[in-house]
Specification:
Blueprint: E1 2-4, H1 11-24, E2 31-35, E3 40-43, H2 49-52, H3 55-60, E4 64-67, E5 75-77, E6 81-89, H4 98-110, E7 116-117, E8 122-125, E9 128-138, E10 141-149, H5 154-160, H6 165-171, H7 193-205, E11 210-212, H8 216-229, H9 233-238, E12 243-251, E13 254-263, E14 266-274, H10 282-289, H11 296-306, H12 308-311, H13 317-324
Parallel strand pairs: 1-2, 1-11, 3-4
Antiparallel strand pairs: 2-6, 3-5, 6-10, 7-8, 8-9, 9-10, 12-13, 13-14
Protein backbone atom coordinates (compact mmCIF):
# COMPACT_ATOMS: atom_id res chain seq x y z
CA UNK A 1 0.00 0.00 0.00
CA UNK A 2 1.22 3.48 -0.87
CA UNK A 3 0.37 6.45 1.35
CA UNK A 4 0.17 9.92 -0.19
CA UNK A 5 0.12 12.96 2.09
CA UNK A 6 -2.03 15.52 0.29
CA UNK A 7 -0.72 18.46 2.31
CA UNK A 8 -3.89 20.42 1.61
CA UNK A 9 -7.21 21.28 3.25
CA UNK A 10 -8.66 22.40 -0.10
CA UNK A 11 -11.43 19.97 -1.05
CA UNK A 12 -11.00 20.66 -4.78
CA UNK A 13 -7.29 19.86 -4.57
CA UNK A 14 -7.95 16.62 -2.71
CA UNK A 15 -10.66 15.49 -5.13
CA UNK A 16 -8.30 16.49 -7.93
CA UNK A 17 -5.62 14.29 -6.37
CA UNK A 18 -8.04 11.32 -6.39
CA UNK A 19 -8.68 11.94 -10.08
CA UNK A 20 -5.00 12.40 -10.94
CA UNK A 21 -3.84 9.15 -9.36
CA UNK A 22 -6.74 7.26 -10.93
CA UNK A 23 -6.72 8.65 -14.47
CA UNK A 24 -3.38 10.33 -15.20
CA UNK A 25 -0.77 8.75 -12.94
CA UNK A 26 -2.08 5.42 -11.64
CA UNK A 27 0.29 3.61 -9.30
CA UNK A 28 0.69 -0.17 -9.25
CA UNK A 29 -0.13 -0.69 -5.58
CA UNK A 30 -3.20 0.43 -3.64
CA UNK A 31 -3.11 4.16 -2.86
CA UNK A 32 -4.28 5.38 0.54
CA UNK A 33 -5.06 9.02 1.43
CA UNK A 34 -6.08 10.54 4.76
CA UNK A 35 -7.09 14.19 4.50
CA UNK A 36 -9.39 16.92 5.77
CA UNK A 37 -10.94 20.13 4.51
CA UNK A 38 -12.07 23.57 5.53
CA UNK A 39 -15.87 23.65 6.15
CA UNK A 40 -17.43 21.94 3.14
CA UNK A 41 -20.66 20.33 2.02
CA UNK A 42 -19.92 17.44 -0.35
CA UNK A 43 -22.98 16.71 -2.46
CA UNK A 44 -23.46 13.31 -4.11
CA UNK A 45 -23.17 12.94 -7.86
CA UNK A 46 -26.89 12.44 -8.46
CA UNK A 47 -28.27 14.93 -5.94
CA UNK A 48 -29.98 18.28 -6.38
CA UNK A 49 -27.86 20.71 -4.36
CA UNK A 50 -30.77 22.96 -3.44
CA UNK A 51 -32.74 20.07 -1.93
CA UNK A 52 -29.84 18.80 0.15
CA UNK A 53 -28.28 21.89 1.71
CA UNK A 54 -29.32 25.17 3.26
CA UNK A 55 -27.49 27.32 0.73
CA UNK A 56 -28.25 30.60 2.50
CA UNK A 57 -26.74 29.21 5.72
CA UNK A 58 -23.73 27.82 3.84
CA UNK A 59 -23.08 31.16 2.14
CA UNK A 60 -23.42 33.09 5.40
CA UNK A 61 -20.95 30.79 7.19
CA UNK A 62 -18.41 30.44 4.35
CA UNK A 63 -19.12 26.75 3.85
CA UNK A 64 -17.99 25.59 0.43
CA UNK A 65 -20.36 23.44 -1.63
CA UNK A 66 -18.77 20.87 -3.95
CA UNK A 67 -20.16 18.00 -6.02
CA UNK A 68 -18.09 14.83 -5.78
CA UNK A 69 -17.85 12.14 -8.45
CA UNK A 70 -19.42 9.39 -6.33
CA UNK A 71 -23.06 8.79 -5.51
CA UNK A 72 -24.64 8.73 -2.06
CA UNK A 73 -25.78 11.54 0.18
CA UNK A 74 -24.49 14.95 1.21
CA UNK A 75 -21.94 15.12 3.99
CA UNK A 76 -20.60 18.07 5.98
CA UNK A 77 -16.95 18.08 6.90
CA UNK A 78 -14.58 20.55 8.53
CA UNK A 79 -11.13 20.65 10.10
CA UNK A 80 -12.47 18.57 12.98
CA UNK A 81 -13.19 15.66 10.66
CA UNK A 82 -11.17 13.40 8.38
CA UNK A 83 -11.62 11.85 4.95
CA UNK A 84 -9.98 8.64 3.79
CA UNK A 85 -9.54 7.35 0.23
CA UNK A 86 -8.48 4.02 -1.25
CA UNK A 87 -7.57 3.82 -4.96
CA UNK A 88 -6.76 0.50 -6.61
CA UNK A 89 -7.25 -1.50 -9.79
CA UNK A 90 -10.86 -2.53 -10.34
CA UNK A 91 -11.28 -6.30 -10.51
CA UNK A 92 -15.02 -6.41 -11.18
CA UNK A 93 -17.99 -4.11 -11.67
CA UNK A 94 -19.56 -4.49 -8.25
CA UNK A 95 -19.84 -1.83 -5.57
CA UNK A 96 -18.16 -3.41 -2.56
CA UNK A 97 -17.84 -1.44 0.66
CA UNK A 98 -16.78 -4.03 3.23
CA UNK A 99 -13.29 -4.45 1.76
CA UNK A 100 -12.41 -0.81 2.44
CA UNK A 101 -14.41 -0.26 5.61
CA UNK A 102 -13.00 -3.27 7.49
CA UNK A 103 -9.48 -1.81 8.00
CA UNK A 104 -10.99 1.43 9.29
CA UNK A 105 -13.11 -0.49 11.80
CA UNK A 106 -9.98 -2.37 12.92
CA UNK A 107 -8.01 0.88 13.31
CA UNK A 108 -10.78 2.35 15.48
CA UNK A 109 -10.90 -0.82 17.60
CA UNK A 110 -7.20 -0.40 18.32
CA UNK A 111 -8.12 2.99 19.80
CA UNK A 112 -10.88 1.49 21.94
CA UNK A 113 -13.73 2.56 19.66
CA UNK A 114 -16.24 -0.16 18.79
CA UNK A 115 -17.67 0.82 15.42
CA UNK A 116 -19.86 -1.27 13.14
CA UNK A 117 -20.91 -1.25 9.49
CA UNK A 118 -24.66 -0.69 9.05
CA UNK A 119 -24.83 -2.78 5.87
CA UNK A 120 -25.34 0.11 3.44
CA UNK A 121 -22.62 2.75 3.57
CA UNK A 122 -22.30 4.06 7.13
CA UNK A 123 -20.14 3.30 10.16
CA UNK A 124 -21.87 3.75 13.49
CA UNK A 125 -21.17 3.75 17.21
CA UNK A 126 -24.16 2.66 19.26
CA UNK A 127 -26.41 3.26 16.26
CA UNK A 128 -25.15 6.81 15.71
CA UNK A 129 -23.30 7.65 12.51
CA UNK A 130 -19.59 8.48 12.49
CA UNK A 131 -18.80 7.79 8.84
CA UNK A 132 -20.42 7.91 5.42
CA UNK A 133 -18.85 6.06 2.49
CA UNK A 134 -19.10 6.24 -1.29
CA UNK A 135 -17.47 4.46 -4.21
CA UNK A 136 -17.10 4.84 -7.96
CA UNK A 137 -15.03 3.65 -10.92
CA UNK A 138 -12.57 5.89 -12.73
CA UNK A 139 -10.04 4.96 -15.41
CA UNK A 140 -9.95 1.27 -14.55
CA UNK A 141 -9.63 2.09 -10.86
CA UNK A 142 -12.03 1.80 -7.98
CA UNK A 143 -12.08 4.90 -5.80
CA UNK A 144 -13.53 4.41 -2.32
CA UNK A 145 -13.75 7.41 -0.04
CA UNK A 146 -15.34 7.98 3.33
CA UNK A 147 -15.68 10.52 6.10
CA UNK A 148 -14.83 10.21 9.78
CA UNK A 149 -16.45 12.52 12.30
CA UNK A 150 -13.69 13.07 14.84
CA UNK A 151 -14.39 16.45 16.41
CA UNK A 152 -16.70 17.98 13.80
CA UNK A 153 -18.98 20.92 14.61
CA UNK A 154 -22.20 18.89 14.72
CA UNK A 155 -24.43 21.89 15.33
CA UNK A 156 -23.16 23.50 12.14
CA UNK A 157 -23.57 20.20 10.32
CA UNK A 158 -27.21 20.03 11.39
CA UNK A 159 -27.87 23.62 10.36
CA UNK A 160 -26.22 23.29 6.94
CA UNK A 161 -27.85 20.06 5.78
CA UNK A 162 -31.45 19.14 5.04
CA UNK A 163 -32.95 15.95 6.48
CA UNK A 164 -34.69 13.76 3.89
CA UNK A 165 -38.42 13.81 4.70
CA UNK A 166 -38.60 10.05 3.99
CA UNK A 167 -35.99 9.38 6.69
CA UNK A 168 -37.87 11.56 9.15
CA UNK A 169 -41.14 9.71 8.50
CA UNK A 170 -39.84 6.15 8.25
CA UNK A 171 -37.34 6.24 11.11
CA UNK A 172 -38.87 8.89 13.38
CA UNK A 173 -35.67 10.90 13.10
CA UNK A 174 -36.06 14.35 14.65
CA UNK A 175 -32.78 15.92 13.61
CA UNK A 176 -29.39 15.39 12.06
CA UNK A 177 -27.78 16.06 15.45
CA UNK A 178 -29.54 13.08 17.04
CA UNK A 179 -28.23 10.68 14.38
CA UNK A 180 -24.50 11.43 14.61
CA UNK A 181 -21.67 11.44 17.12
CA UNK A 182 -17.96 12.31 17.17
CA UNK A 183 -15.29 9.63 17.53
CA UNK A 184 -13.46 11.82 20.07
CA UNK A 185 -16.32 11.24 22.52
CA UNK A 186 -15.70 7.46 22.48
CA UNK A 187 -11.91 7.11 22.63
CA UNK A 188 -10.33 5.02 25.36
CA UNK A 189 -7.87 7.88 25.95
CA UNK A 190 -8.13 11.52 24.80
CA UNK A 191 -6.13 12.58 21.76
CA UNK A 192 -6.13 15.45 19.30
CA UNK A 193 -7.00 15.20 15.62
CA UNK A 194 -3.40 14.93 14.42
CA UNK A 195 -2.58 12.12 16.85
CA UNK A 196 -5.73 10.32 15.70
CA UNK A 197 -4.64 10.63 12.08
CA UNK A 198 -1.17 9.28 12.85
CA UNK A 199 -2.57 6.22 14.62
CA UNK A 200 -5.11 5.39 11.92
CA UNK A 201 -2.66 5.84 9.04
CA UNK A 202 0.00 3.73 10.77
CA UNK A 203 -2.49 0.93 11.43
CA UNK A 204 -3.89 0.83 7.89
CA UNK A 205 -0.50 1.06 6.14
CA UNK A 206 1.05 -1.68 8.25
CA UNK A 207 4.77 -2.44 8.39
CA UNK A 208 5.15 -2.85 4.62
CA UNK A 209 3.46 0.38 3.57
CA UNK A 210 5.40 2.96 1.59
CA UNK A 211 4.97 6.66 0.84
CA UNK A 212 4.83 8.64 -2.38
CA UNK A 213 5.99 12.26 -2.37
CA UNK A 214 3.86 14.53 -4.55
CA UNK A 215 6.16 16.42 -6.92
CA UNK A 216 5.74 20.10 -7.87
CA UNK A 217 4.67 18.91 -11.34
CA UNK A 218 2.08 16.57 -9.80
CA UNK A 219 0.77 19.34 -7.58
CA UNK A 220 0.43 21.85 -10.42
CA UNK A 221 -1.62 19.40 -12.48
CA UNK A 222 -3.72 18.38 -9.46
CA UNK A 223 -4.62 22.02 -8.79
CA UNK A 224 -5.61 22.43 -12.43
CA UNK A 225 -7.86 19.38 -12.25
CA UNK A 226 -9.34 20.63 -8.98
CA UNK A 227 -10.28 23.97 -10.50
CA UNK A 228 -11.70 22.50 -13.70
CA UNK A 229 -13.58 19.49 -12.37
CA UNK A 230 -14.60 20.49 -8.85
CA UNK A 231 -14.13 24.23 -8.32
CA UNK A 232 -16.50 25.72 -10.88
CA UNK A 233 -20.16 26.68 -10.67
CA UNK A 234 -20.89 24.29 -13.55
CA UNK A 235 -19.37 21.30 -11.74
CA UNK A 236 -21.42 21.90 -8.60
CA UNK A 237 -24.76 23.15 -9.94
CA UNK A 238 -24.70 22.44 -13.67
CA UNK A 239 -24.22 18.68 -13.27
CA UNK A 240 -27.25 18.09 -11.06
CA UNK A 241 -30.59 16.62 -12.15
CA UNK A 242 -33.38 18.87 -13.44
CA UNK A 243 -36.14 19.98 -11.10
CA UNK A 244 -39.26 22.08 -10.89
CA UNK A 245 -39.56 24.55 -8.06
CA UNK A 246 -41.99 27.17 -6.80
CA UNK A 247 -40.94 30.17 -4.76
CA UNK A 248 -43.15 32.70 -3.00
CA UNK A 249 -42.21 36.25 -2.13
CA UNK A 250 -44.35 38.61 -0.06
CA UNK A 251 -43.41 42.25 -0.55
CA UNK A 252 -44.85 45.68 0.39
CA UNK A 253 -46.15 45.89 -3.18
CA UNK A 254 -47.86 42.49 -3.15
CA UNK A 255 -47.22 38.76 -3.36
CA UNK A 256 -45.34 37.10 -6.22
CA UNK A 257 -45.13 33.38 -6.96
CA UNK A 258 -42.40 32.08 -9.28
CA UNK A 259 -42.78 28.75 -11.09
CA UNK A 260 -39.42 27.55 -12.42
CA UNK A 261 -38.17 24.66 -14.53
CA UNK A 262 -34.43 24.21 -13.92
CA UNK A 263 -32.07 21.88 -15.77
CA UNK A 264 -28.29 21.65 -15.30
CA UNK A 265 -28.47 24.67 -13.04
CA UNK A 266 -30.10 26.90 -15.67
CA UNK A 267 -33.69 28.19 -15.65
CA UNK A 268 -35.38 26.79 -18.77
CA UNK A 269 -38.83 28.28 -18.25
CA UNK A 270 -40.31 30.64 -15.70
CA UNK A 271 -43.80 31.90 -14.98
CA UNK A 272 -44.87 34.59 -12.50
CA UNK A 273 -48.22 35.01 -10.76
CA UNK A 274 -49.54 36.99 -7.79
CA UNK A 275 -51.36 40.16 -6.74
CA UNK A 276 -48.50 42.54 -7.46
CA UNK A 277 -48.62 45.73 -9.58
CA UNK A 278 -46.33 46.18 -12.56
CA UNK A 279 -45.94 48.02 -15.83
CA UNK A 280 -44.23 44.83 -17.05
CA UNK A 281 -46.40 41.79 -17.59
CA UNK A 282 -45.59 38.48 -15.95
CA UNK A 283 -44.57 36.93 -19.24
CA UNK A 284 -41.82 39.50 -19.71
CA UNK A 285 -40.42 38.75 -16.26
CA UNK A 286 -40.54 35.02 -16.96
CA UNK A 287 -38.81 35.46 -20.31
CA UNK A 288 -36.04 37.48 -18.66
CA UNK A 289 -35.35 34.58 -16.29
CA UNK A 290 -35.27 31.90 -19.00
CA UNK A 291 -31.68 30.96 -19.82
CA UNK A 292 -30.39 32.45 -16.56
CA UNK A 293 -28.32 30.47 -14.05
CA UNK A 294 -30.25 29.50 -10.95
CA UNK A 295 -28.02 31.73 -8.91
CA UNK A 296 -29.09 34.77 -6.91
CA UNK A 297 -26.60 37.21 -8.44
CA UNK A 298 -27.36 36.02 -11.98
CA UNK A 299 -31.12 36.30 -11.39
CA UNK A 300 -30.77 39.80 -9.93
CA UNK A 301 -28.68 40.92 -12.90
CA UNK A 302 -31.25 39.57 -15.37
CA UNK A 303 -34.09 41.37 -13.60
CA UNK A 304 -32.12 44.60 -13.40
CA UNK A 305 -31.43 44.45 -17.13
CA UNK A 306 -35.17 44.01 -17.72
CA UNK A 307 -35.84 47.16 -15.68
CA UNK A 308 -37.77 45.62 -12.80
CA UNK A 309 -36.68 48.37 -10.40
CA UNK A 310 -39.37 51.02 -10.63
CA UNK A 311 -41.54 48.97 -13.00
CA UNK A 312 -42.77 46.54 -10.33
CA UNK A 313 -44.46 48.47 -7.55
CA UNK A 314 -42.47 48.40 -4.29
CA UNK A 315 -40.45 45.31 -5.25
CA UNK A 316 -36.80 45.60 -6.25
CA UNK A 317 -34.81 43.23 -8.46
CA UNK A 318 -32.70 42.30 -5.44
CA UNK A 319 -35.73 41.44 -3.31
CA UNK A 320 -37.18 39.38 -6.12
CA UNK A 321 -33.89 37.52 -6.56
CA UNK A 322 -33.79 36.71 -2.85
CA UNK A 323 -37.26 35.18 -3.09
CA UNK A 324 -36.37 33.14 -6.19
CA UNK A 325 -33.03 31.81 -4.92
CA UNK A 326 -32.95 31.54 -1.13
Amino acid sequence: MIYIETGSADVCYNFGLEYYFSMEKPLEDTVFLFWRTTPTLMVGRYQNVLEEVDKAYADAHNIQIVRRMSGGGTIYTDMGGWQFTFIEKATDGEIQFQRYIAPVIDALAELGVQASFNGRNDLTIGGRKISGNAQYRLGGRVVHHGSLLFDTDLERMAAATTVDSYKITSKSIKSVRERVTNISEHLAAPMDAEAFKERVVRHILGPEGTAYQVTPEDSARIREIGRERFGSWESTYGQGPGFNIQRMGRFPGGAMRFHLDVKKGVIQQAAVSGDFFSTLDGEAIGNALAGCRYDRAAVRDALERLGVDGAVYRVSAGEMAEAIVD
